[in-house]
From TrEMBL:
It is a multi-pass membrane protein. This is Polyprenol-phosphate-mannose--protein mannosyltransferase. InterPro entries: ArnT-like_N, PMT-like, PMT_4TMC. Belongs to the glycosyltransferase 39 family. It comes from Auraticoccus cholistanensis. The chain crosses the membrane at residues 101-122, 129-147, 222-241, 253-275, 383-400, 407-424, 430-452, 464-487. It is an enzyme of class 2 (transferase). Residues 14-168 form the ArnT-like N-terminal domain. Pathway: Protein modification; protein glycosylation. Residues 311-506 form the Protein O-mannosyl-transferase C-terminal four TM domain. The lineage of its organism: Bacteria, Bacillati, Actinomycetota, Actinomycetes, Propionibacteriales. GO terms for biological process: protein O-linked glycosylation. Its EC number is 2.4.1.-. It is found in: Cell membrane; Endomembrane system. Keywords: Cell membrane, Glycosyltransferase, Membrane, Transferase, Transmembrane, Transmembrane helix.
Length: 507
């Protein structure tokens, strides 16, 4: 690792503050519930007051904007995501009230934290504070990360926890290799001499990863795919470390010596942490299906687990049925349906909010304009995503062809956050799900930038590479500035809006 720890943290924190400053401007605009904010901020508000999600009347959104925030119904609401993300939204509501600023504040904070954990991940993987800083700049000025940091949805929380968990596993890789080296040095050995080496049951970074993966699953279930993929990858790293240290054929012993403790430290611990995120539902009595266990004392789950956990298990079965098609028919449609095959190249946008047909001379629309509109469009910074897609392809080739573990982090990150969506293409899907992909895309971009820069030191390659990389980062920032109006509800004429709709599928 680089020895500039203080400088690295100064850079990390400065970029985190920059990201927050960029995102917090006019955070409460528009002053209404937009898109899926119709669900999560209201769920969060009822969690604050009751510990579980309550139902709301049909006109609740208008009443909330008008200032009536206690209009929930007596009965519980059927919710299809775990409660942690909504509890995090509730923190902002507790601080600033049930207002548009309040229900977006926590997302804004986590949007900045996403920059922080990405900088640390990229620095650790690339061994470069420069590239870690570049990653922070790129992510600070990505449009999709920007928009998802300014609305009260769950996905930004999930993204932060996932990147933090992967960062912990990357740190565990270094920690384990250091322990192996210390083992050899303490015994005066050149290598392990064909034995498996020490068994290390306590690995703090892996335990931390388990905790944070549990938090990610407590926001959205599909975090399980990332947990499974990186859990396997981390054990593969252990096998490689023991082989490098001279374990020879005994290096496969890591599948047991390291794999079993890894399963406990990540999967089992994550499950325990996940269960704790349901505490509010478990310790209260009014949640949806909360009384199922009492009503079904003869059920096997009730007899084995007790009524509260049996009720929770039944609730999970119903949520799973919702997500897998019992409640979502194959002929369901949505105007912003975006299949995952097109996410990496931004084939389709997501409309978060729109006010169309603003008359000239009204709401800032120029008098000489035909008509104007204000929109919030969910879309990444095009230059970053298009170059990122090419860099992800390079990462696949470099990982498989050169066996470079660094590129494997980006590839496994992409695979575990993107490929699982292909099994649900019969239902509407949206581009904003890809918020968990972009940190790994940025990692791939920075790894390719590292290839262009070459090793530190004077030389023409380093100078040319620095110019190319610097120009690219600057162009991403300029690209962000050009698209800024369609991310922030700014008034645009139709022509100004069309100037930013670069693909026909964006219209």
């Amino acid at each position: 690792m680089p020895r500039d720890r203080l400088t690295a943290w100064v850079v990390t924190l400065a970029l985190t503050v920059l990201a927050f400053a960029v995102r917090v401007v006019d955070l409460g605009r528009p002053n209404k519930l937009v898109f899926d904010e119709t669900y999560y901020p209201k769920d969060a508000w009822s969690l604050l007051h009751f510990g579980y999600e309550r139902g709301w009347p049909d006109d609740a959104n208008a009443q909330i904007v008008a200032g009536s925030t206690d209009v929930w119904e007596d009965g519980p609401a059927f919710v299809v995501h775990p409660p942690l993300g909504k509890w995090l939204i509730a923190v902002g509501e507790h601080l600033f009230g049930m207002t548009s600023f309040g229900w977006r504040f926590s997302a804004c904070v986590f949007g900045a934290l996403l920059v922080l954990v990405t900088v640390r991940l990229v620095r650790r993987v690339t061994r470069s504070t420069l590239l870690g800083g570049a990653a922070g700049v790129l992510l600070s000025f990505d449009g999709l990360a920007f928009v998802m940091s300014r609305i009260g949805l769950l996905d930004i929380f999930q993204a932060v926890f996932l990147v933090a968990a992967v960062s912990a596993l990357a740190a565990d890789r270094d920690w384990f290799r250091t322990r192996l080296a210390d083992h050899l040095q303490a015994r005066g050995l050149a290598d392990l001499g064909g034995v498996a080496g020490p068994v290390l049951l306590w690995r703090p970074w892996r335990v931390l990863a388990g905790v944070v993966f549990g938090l990610a699953c407590g926001v959205k279930w599909n975090s399980i795919y990332v947990l499974a993929a990186f859990g396997l990858l981390s054990v593969a790293w252990d096998v490689g470390a023991r082989r490098l240290a001279g374990a020879g054929s005994r290096s496969t012993m890591a599948l047991l010596a390291d794999g079993v403790p890894a399963f406990v430290s990540t999967v089992v611990l994550a499950a325990v942490v996940y269960l704790t995120t349901w505490t509010g539902w478990l310790v209260t009595s009014g949640g949806y299906y909360r009384d199922w266990g009492e009503q079904h004392p003869e059920a096997t789950s009730t007899r084995l687990l007790g009524a509260p956990l049996a009720s929770l298990l039944h609730y999970h079965a119903e949520i799973y049925a919702f997500h897998t098609g019992e409640f979502i028919t194959e002929d369901a449609t949505h105007s912003y349906d975006a299949k995952p095959i097109g996410w990496l190249v931004l084939a389709r946008t997501i409309g978060i909010d729109a006010v169309n047909d603003i008359p000239p001379g009204t709401d800032g629309c120029p008098l000489d304009a035909d008509r104007c509109q204000r929109v919030i469009t969910g879309i990444g910074t095009p230059l970053l995503w298009w170059v990122g897609a090419a860099c992800l392809l390079v990462a696949v080739l470099w990982w498989l062809g050169r066996r470079d573990w660094r590129f494997g982090v980006a590839v496994v990150g992409l695979a575990s956050t993107w490929l699982p969506w292909f099994q649900y293409t019969e239902r509407p899907q949206f581009l904003f799900y890809a918020i968990t992909i972009i940190p790994f895309t940025v990692l791939a971009v920075c790894l390719v930038m590292g290839l262009l820069l070459g090793p530190p030191g004077p030389g023409r390659r380093r100078r040319v590479g620095a110019v190319v990389c610097g120009v690219f980062v600057a162009l991403v920032v300029l690209n962000f500035a050009f698209f800024y109006p369609v991310w922030t509800d700014q008034v645009l004429t139709k022509d100004q809006w069309l100037d930013r709709m670069w693909l026909r599928t964006w219209v």
